[in-house]
Amino acid sequence: MTQALSIPAHIHRQYPDAEIHFLTKDIFTELLETNQHVKKIWSLKSDDSVLKMVSRLNQENFDHLYDAHNNLRSNVFYFLVNAQHKLQKPMERFKRFLLLRFKINKFEIPFSGQRDLLKPLEKWNIPFSLPPGPQIFLKAETLKRAEDILNQNHISLPFVAVAPSAAHIFKRWPVDKWKELFALCSKTQFVILAGPNDHFTLEFNTFPNVTNLTGKTSLLESAAIIQWASKVISNDTGLLHFSEQLDKKTIALMGAAPFGFPSKPHTIIIKKDLPCWPCSKHGQGPCVNPEFHRCMNDISAIEVKQKLEQL
């Protein structure tokens, strides 16, 4: 979803008079409410009837419909909502099979999630290019809440925001590596952003230069704290793409998964080239390397420190 926030601006550059509607889950609605390129947001709750939403959308008489997700639910809208011109993001299933099963790569390098979302629009005569950031426009009250959280925790500017978690273990830089980085950068102030179930971050509390906000911020408050940050270090997770869409200086630590890569030229990607990569589509494993979790273990704290200084 976060990478898809570039789509409205991308369309609008070529067709400035287009009225753009955006259908999304209700949990992401606030990310779009202040987007100047989106005329109307269609918010879908988990218990909403998809067919009722289809009926409502069909009253709009759309000219164009772009399914940027291409999953089971979005396919329902793609096939049932009326529009003169329809387009779907290709899933490239055979290419994915070759990559995951035989390590034969037919994808464009470097991997880019936003590129894969925007290039299909070339069929509508919209030349590919990444729209300049930011592409997340946070409300003033959200930024104020984040500022209050920073003040309550005695966090002053500048600081580096850190996202040490991820949905799957093989997308996470090991805890000991983070601890080594915090020790090496003793004069840098780090702020940890993680969810309430990420209990492993308790190990970071012993560092005087680390403030742990695990479980203390909502998703949008985390985005706002990233906006306040001077730099961001993140695993392959949603906060990485928040950072990019907020146009922040970012270091991306990329592990087992192949399809969540950042897209902005100023983002520094650290990834190790291994014959076992990628082991799985989403980074869920299992690890097949004789040296367990080598894709992330081979990223050294010194290397990350050097890239941080480079930024």
Indicate how many domains the architecture comprises: 2
N- and C-termini, Cα separation: 27 Å
Which stretches are low in confidence, meaning pLDDT under 50 for 5 or more residues running? none
**Fold-level CATH name of the largest domain:** Rossmann fold
Strand order of the largest sheet: 7-6-5-8-9-10
Average per-residue pLDDT, rounded, comes to 94
Which CATH class of the largest domain? Alpha Beta
What would you say about this model in short?
The protein has 311 residues and is of the alpha/beta class.
Structural description of this entry:
The chain contains 11 helices and 10 strands. With 311 residues, the protein is of the alpha/beta class. It has 2 domains: 3-124, Glycogen Phosphorylase B (Rossmann fold), CATH 3.40.50; 140-310, Glycogen Phosphorylase B (Rossmann fold). A 6-stranded parallel β-sheet has the order 7-6-5-8-9-10, with helices on both faces. α2 packs parallel to α3, α6 (140-152) packs across α8 and α7 (175-184) packs across α11. The radius of gyration is 20 Å and the shape is globular.
Which helices and strands occur, and which strands form pairs?
Layout: H1 6-14, E1 21-25, E2 40-44, H2 50-58, E3 62-67, H3 72-80, E4 83-88, H4 93-102, H5 113-118, H6 140-152, E5 160-163, H7 175-184, E6 190-192, E7 210-212, H8 219-228, E8 231-235, H9 238-245, E9 249-253, E10 268-270, H10 294-297, H11 301-310
Helix pairs in contact: 2-3, 6-8, 7-11
